[in-house]
Amino acid sequence: MAPERRWPRSVYAEGAEPDYRFSFANERTFLAWIRTALALLVAGVAVDVVDLSLSNGAQKALAVLLVAAGLLTTIAAWGRWAMAERAVRRGAALPSFGIGAGLALVLIVAAAIALAGLR
């Protein structure tokens, strides 16, 4: 398919067509991030629905934190996919992995809320 017909054009209009293995690897990484986002969303809904031994405020805060993390992970997955695909097409270095540090911080905060709320 011609680059001008592929979407998003901001990704496919740059550089040369890479070896398909690199594009597939980038796609698998994107899908792994989407699975992570889905797991965070499910965890947030479960925390909200299941009656835990947390205060109502802590349980709601934990649920909101997990759902928000799932939403942000989805957005970050798309951006990371686009940056990596552009880098591969240009033959440039891959982008840094800042998403992982942010997600780790969110999970540390979620664990702290859960531990602090246990009676």
Automatic annotation (TrEMBL):
The keyword Transmembrane helix applies. It holds the Pfam family DUF202. This is DUF202 domain-containing protein. It comes from Nocardioides dubius. It is found in: Cell membrane. Keywords: Cell membrane, Membrane, Transmembrane, Transmembrane helix. It comes from the Bacteria. Residues 21-86 form the DUF202 domain. It is a multi-pass membrane protein. InterPro entries: DUF202, IM_YidH-like. The keyword Transmembrane applies. Its main location: membrane. The chain crosses the membrane at residues 30-50, 62-81, 93-118.
